[in-house]
Amino acid sequence: METATEGQKLEFKNFENKPTALVAGGAGFLGSYLCEALIAQGFNVLCVDNLARSSKKNIEKLLSFPNFFFWEEDINRAGFTISPNVKITHIFHLASVEEYLSSNNLSLETLLVNSIGTKNLLDVAVQKKAKFIFVSSSEVFRGAFSQKNLSIYFGKEAGTTHLTFGEAKRFSETLAAEYFNKFDLPVVIVRIKDPYGPKMNLSSDNIVSKSISQAIKGKIEIIGDGLRVANPTFVTDIIFGIVKAAIKGEKGEIFNLISRERCTERALAEHLKKLFGGVEVVYKEQKELDLPESPLILDDAQGKLNWDPKVPLDDGLVQTVNFYKVGGTENKEEKNVPSNPIVPPVELTGKKGFDKNFLRNLFLGAILVLFLWATAVPIITSAASYYLGNKNFNSALEELKQDKTDNAVAHAEKAENFYKRSQESLQNISWLLTATNLKGTLQQTSNYLFLAETLSRAVNFESKSIGNINDASSADGEKLKEDLKKAIENITEADKNIDVASTISIDARKLPAFLNKDYQTLQEKRQTLESLSETINSNLESTQ
């Protein structure tokens, strides 16, 4: 422990002026998205995870960021603490946040993480005077029904893990409240329900993950009439709410980050059947009664945080399904990859007295060529991709202003892909920039490219929305309604990307000189997109 925390202290020195977040469960589904969001917000992030039910693959893209640190550790361990030299401003507790996994062992772990683990994190929060954000679940509302279901605590019925999870979260909330009362600890609680999205854990027993898991296998089995209700909430909406609660939430507040969009198990199966194609939906007799639906409180976050889910269910399912269609996996064991390639020995043959200097020069020359290849190629690729991204972005924006929506969409998609490619190439030389004390430049350039990528998506969705409005102008009846609905959905997505762009923190002083002017221009383009969005929204409101 001491070695790990001392190492973290040395790395954090260059970022002491930034807020520092400890994310427990940071390599999990929700935790990995939260780490990405906090990095984009300019936080230092210490990700703590024992990898029992998560995967390091979820955070592999973050490992090269200079202000991201991964620590494989169990928060349940006796004596868990953080070195006094490491400054922590926020603690996010997302360990065991994914709902009621079916394994009995994981049910026990759920209780331990939400008791011992929570206490350990609360003690660290008191020591560091850090804000404590606990991610809970709507399952706590089931407490009113627990007295009617005590008989199944010692059974093997499916409801047992539901009760385990709900009671564990209720205990954690109560424990956090006691620390709030006793130590005046700034505690904020957020509750979620039915989270879903790419990288979700398909072993979870909630309606959404179970249905997607079965759809992948080609057969969805529905027990009973299929009228169980879910409130699927897309992962990025949840994360946006958690970050808002951490920054704007007052101590002692509770926020329910739950979508108002309800969906029955039957309707969800039909959605997935259309998306996957060739999926069979089978109904089976229900032999056991379900636990009663828990009551929900949905107004706190909307009022206090001005939070509302932006991603409609159809769009979220498309993104999730596409992730698994192209081979996305969850919780696979990571294979041990040797740090150096294993090369079979090569036997040199030749005449006696072979010139050793020639061999040495040949070897040094080969190393030089490899070094130039490893550095020059990524730099050239990143620069070329950035140039092409700018070219397509500018074309898309001009075409958007001229109502050439189809061309604008095509160029915006190309711009987004080129900016992504530029970021990937830049990360390939992160080791070189780190070694030459250019970590800050690397971070700010990555943030800049992410900003450009996000604004490209905004142009894409605004162009689609205007195209839908143009189509609606010559339509009537159901076609008119459908076009206007699509226009609203697309401008909502555009607004979401503009909102994300406004939260990306960039220190222009650390950008390469040639990007400084481009950064100012990009900010002006963001303002242009905001203005266009307001006009589009105004036009759509007039049609209502």
From TrEMBL:
Chain segments annotated as transmembrane: 362-388
Keyword annotations: Decarboxylase, Lyase, Membrane, NAD, Transmembrane, Transmembrane helix
Superkingdom, taxonomy of origin: Bacteria
Any one Gene Ontology cellular component term annotated for this protein: cytoplasm
GO terms (BP aspect): D-xylose metabolic process
Coiled coil: none
Residues covered by the NAD-dependent epimerase/dehydratase domain: 21-257
Names of the cofactor(s): NAD(+)
Keyword NAD among record annotations: yes
Pfam families, sorted: Epimerase
Entry's Gene Ontology molecular function annotations: NAD+ binding; UDP-glucuronate decarboxylase activity
InterPro entries reported for this sequence: Epimerase_deHydtase, NAD(P)-bd_dom_sf, UXS-like
PANTHER family reported for this sequence: UDP-GLUCURONIC ACID DECARBOXYLASE 1, UDP-GLUCURONIC ACID DECARBOXYLASE-RELATED
Name by which UniProt lists this protein: NAD-dependent epimerase/dehydratase domain-containing protein
Species this protein is from: Candidatus Woykebacteria bacterium RBG_13_40_15
